[in-house]
Amino acid sequence: MTVTIRIARGEADLALVHEVRREVFIVEQGIAEEEEWDDLDPTSEHLLAVGPEGEPVGTARLIFGEPALGITGGVGGRVLLGRLAVLKTARGTGLGAELVRAVEAAGRARGAREMELHAQVQALGFYERLGYAAEGPVYDDAGIPHRTMTRVL
């Protein structure tokens, strides 16, 4: 499958981003709709992966600036990777790793020196293979165990 990753621009792209997140997080994982959509969406940069026919297959978001400082406890030079989602039809293709690398590149372009993410515990191995290290205890987020992970960019 040929996939293109781009920064989501405009309402049409954001609708595709939300389509992927709705399928993965709300439908598959049972996360409540009010927990999925938050006030970080409008200030974040969203990456969108589309297939050969322009169909959405994956997404991730980059949280930067003041919103990132609020989440990371004021760690300067750190941005956050969040809402990484790949549709079932594109899993196992390496797209998840491609999206992580694309978010890292977008973070570096904004001057970031570190990336933080809040991984579902079942995905820790995936992120560890990409160079992330877990820190701190396991905590609950939307009813799913998570752990904070970081990586120097």
TrEMBL record:
Question: Known Gene3D superfamilies for this protein?
Answer: 3.40.630.30
Which is one GO molecular function term here?
acyltransferase activity
Class of the enzyme per the UniProt entry, highest EC level: transferase
Enzyme Commission no:
2.3.1.-
PROSITE patterns associated with the record: GNAT
Whether RNA-binding counts among this entry's keywords is no
Residues forming the N-acetyltransferase domain are 3-153
Ordered alphabetically, the record's keywords are:
Acyltransferase, Transferase
Q: Which InterPro entries match?
A: Acyl_CoA_acyltransferase, Bact_Acetyltransf, GNAT_dom
Pfam families tied to this protein: Acetyltransf_1
Which PANTHER family does the UniProt record give?
A: AMINOALKYLPHOSPHONATE N-ACETYLTRANSFERASE-RELATED, AMINOALKYLPHOSPHONATE N-ACETYLTRANSFERASE-RELATED-RELATED
Q: What is the protein named?
A: GNAT family N-acetyltransferase
